[in-house]
Fold this sequence. Notes:
CATH class of the largest domain: Alpha Beta
Distance between the termini: 11 Å
Oligomer: single chain
Low-confidence stretches: none
Radius of gyration: 23 Å
CATH topology of the largest domain: Aminopeptidase
CATH superfamily of the largest domain: Zn peptidases
CATH architecture of the largest domain: 3-Layer(aba) Sandwich
Strand content: 15-25%
Number of strands: 22
Largest sheet: 6 strands, mixed
Amino acid sequence: MEKNLANQINELAAKYRDYTAGNLSKLVQIKSLSCGEEKVQIELKRQMEEAGFDEVRIDGLGNVIGRIGNGKIILAIDGHMDTVDIGNPDNWDFDPLGGEIKDGFVHGRGTVDQEGGPAAFVTSGRIIKELGLDKGLTIYFVGSVMEEDCDGLCWKYIIGEEGIKPDFAISTEPTNMNIYRGHRGRMEMHVHFYGVSSHGSAPERGKNAIYMASRTALEIEKLNERLATDEFLGKGSVTISEIVSGSPSLCAVSDYARIHLDRRLTWGETKESAVKEIEELIKGINAKVEVLDYREKAWTGLEYGMEKYYPTWKIPEDHPIVQTAAKAFEGLFHKKPVIDKWTFSTNGVTINGIYGIPTIGFGPGNEVLAHAPNEKVSVDDLEQASAFYAGFAKELNQK
Length: 399
């Protein structure tokens, strides 16, 4: 990137520093749990319009889609607008919905996970328009919905129903201002156990489903220790997050039990391989494995869903999109970026994991604060992120 242009991008990001923080503060003050994002989406749409985007609309699922440019190369910059709830308010040192800007931080739920990214990309859109960086590009800025409930669902809709399939994508999930190139996949499973009830005074007459589930649970604990490992993404994992049971009465042997599995998938692990591992553990038992589905009504009233299998994905470090990101980073900030991965899951499971679109992550904030009390993001991060998205667009345009 030319030195003069990099300076111009950084100067505008600094000029709009307070504007970016103020926009984020407004977003944080609007509670926006999954399926309840309407008010925050209306505010994000207003911010995009104020920033001078060429087109801003809300799709059928409730995603805000802003567009700049009409070029052949299609870039999408994504950030989800739903947040988790605040949890125990006593664990917070400040109002989680206050959006207070103090001591160089914006404070509150969603500042890191994940409205800080969209606040920054609104400013980057303004910079791109002012400097004419959109020539040759069509850039979609997406404030997506329902990610906390079902990561990737929003992009299943955008690609499958809206017909928008970008050539490249950036996730603005928090990366601590590093460049991320993947993360483990995940899936959710139920294992159902079917026993036979009998009177509690004569348990030998029945088959206790809780015992079946308990023995299997111990085998799943052992399975976790021997799962595959990838040099970059790390080890696969499985844990039991819930167990429920049923019986005709509290004076009867349980005839049903169910365990809920949270399975994290490293490179090379698939839905089929993960299901087969559990099926091996329940051979000879009256039990079955079920991969779960998600189906809920969006805030627009549209009911939509997908299977709760979120594929593993990673981009090679020498891939052009990673190198473009690194070049943009170095041109703007005069240092080499750290190239790493997320611990948690993102919309990349669909964008790249299902549709194979080259994707990188770059976002303000530290993922350690995601879903945690006292969530806050540095205004420095917001400023630099707004510069990065504009700088990436410029570098992509030169390819």
